[in-house]
Amino acid sequence: MLNKGIQAPSEQLGSTDALLRKTGLFRSSVIIALQVVVDLVSFFLAFLCSLLLRFGGLPPNNIEEYFRAILLQVGVFFFFFVVFSLYRTLWKTAGIDELMRVGFASILAAGTGYLASLVTGWLLPASVYYAGGALVIMFAGFSRVAYRLLRRIQGGMVGEENWRRTMIVGAGEMGSAAIRQMNDQPWMHMRPVVAVDDDVSKLRRMVRGVPVEGTRKDIPRLSEKYRIDLIVLCLPRVEEKDRREIIRLCSETTCAIKTMPSLQELMDRKEPGSMRDIDVGDLLARSERELDETGIREYLFGRTVLVTGGGGSIGSELCRQIGRFEPGKLVIFDVYENSAYDLSLELDRLYPKLDCVVEIGSVRDENRLDELFEKYKPQIVFHAAAHKHVPLMENNPAEAVKNNVFGTYNTAWAALQHDTQRFILISTDKAVNPTSVMGASKRMAEYVIQYFNSFGKTRYAAVRFGNVLGSNGSVIPLFRKQIEAGGPITVTDKNITRYFMTIPEAARLVLQAGISAKGGEIFILDMGEPVRIDDIARTLIRLSGHRPDIDIAIEYSGLRPGEKLYEELFLDEEQPGETGIPGIYIGKVQSPPPETIRKNLDWLREQIETGEDARTCFTAIIPTYHPEDRKDTELDNELE
Q1: Structurally, how many domains does the chain consist of?
Q2: What is the torsional sign of CA 248, 251, 253, 258?
Q3: What is the pTM of this model?
Q4: 320 CB contacts (<8 Å, ≥6 apart)?
């Protein structure tokens, strides 16, 4: 039992909340009382001034009757101001809507006040009612915007060096709202000085006092002319290709970049916010491809689906998207229980009717896999479990083989034994002409898939794609952490390039592959042009509100073991073929015969168990594996 003199933490918290609530209510009451007093004084002065103007001073007689009539008008105006909820708004947000309500309330109050005077007999000269109503609008309206004016004047008194000179891209309603927010919120330390818009009818016009000086093409020139520190994008309805072009132009400057979210974004995020950083998906040089959701639903609906590595970046997004298509059961299999458990809670919230279970275990454990497949009899398997970190696998090559090669073998064998209909392997572009242990292990995993596809009824296929924006272990989270720490950002080589896609896009590709899989294919997404990592680093710095090489330094550390300057999507012997789905190809691979693959797998297992270096083994059984060529050959190609 608690000591009576000591409060429990929950009681202390409740007491604190109650105190804060009372304090807030008291402050609110004081502010409302102040507003009422200011308005009552405004009403009285408005009619008094009107009366003085009518007579050129105090009236010669009936002064007491006139004062009674003025007090009657004050009461009537106060009544209408209450009816129009003019004491429930904040002064710091007062604007056109507030002034319009003041005007309507004053017009109605003036008419009603005149009728009340006729009833009571406390009459004022007719002109006083008109002039008094007009002065009420002026006095009450000014009192409501005065606070905002004082805040702006106070903000203008802060030294120019403390403000960020800001360019507005998009001079429409959102641009106007952004300018207003900057002017009304001195703590933002943003001073809008110029705007651009592709609508030529807005050129040479003013938006809340800010000149519209050009179109998107003028962004680099105007940023230099006006010494811009920050560019704010106000583009609620712009096409994706135009948005990316604008971001590219902004990236040519030394300015930080922010964006105003649209109303739909705020609704989707289900959280308040105003200005925000640009999402990493905006870094892609192409639009994400929309795939065949009807076809995906047809083969997932009502079926039992297993996702290995379900707690990882790709695996978890696969689970989220699978949940939309109402499978009969979704089985999440992962060796790391925390991420799998968090994902299951998220799926319960997103899809309350989804039958989702979490199973913990490793794909290296054959018995555990057999138990899993025997228990659930999955009809579709997405195999995302893998070690994918290139430098770590260079230091732990045997672990890459055990997990990526034989973990895939174990899972594929269990699928065959339990009559799984489709088995989709998540592969990588690093499997093409691999120079790293990780890439070589994933190439061997592709061999495993093609081996199993040579017999049995299960359809085996692989999906190969490049780097995924924002996934665990990718450069984007690393760069963001380095930026948050104040830098420097570390880039291995200034010329290193990679293919990129977003996590949702990667997951959709994997699901799409399940529809088209006939057996043995390697599906490859047309990922557009590769992107320089150095460009991504510099863009991320700007998107985070900083300037590269000024606020955040960039250091080049040199290529790491197993790392290539350039990635490829197709092997030399592969001839990409059309799938009938725009942007998705099939790599027509000339694989070794099944008996050769089986022989190589048995030999590889023996060598790893005896402690042989995996690199030596890969060199013997993967003709395209050349770890020594990871840099020199590519540098020669670059010079040519």
Answers
A1: 3
A2: positive
A3: 0.63
A4: 346, 347, 350, 507
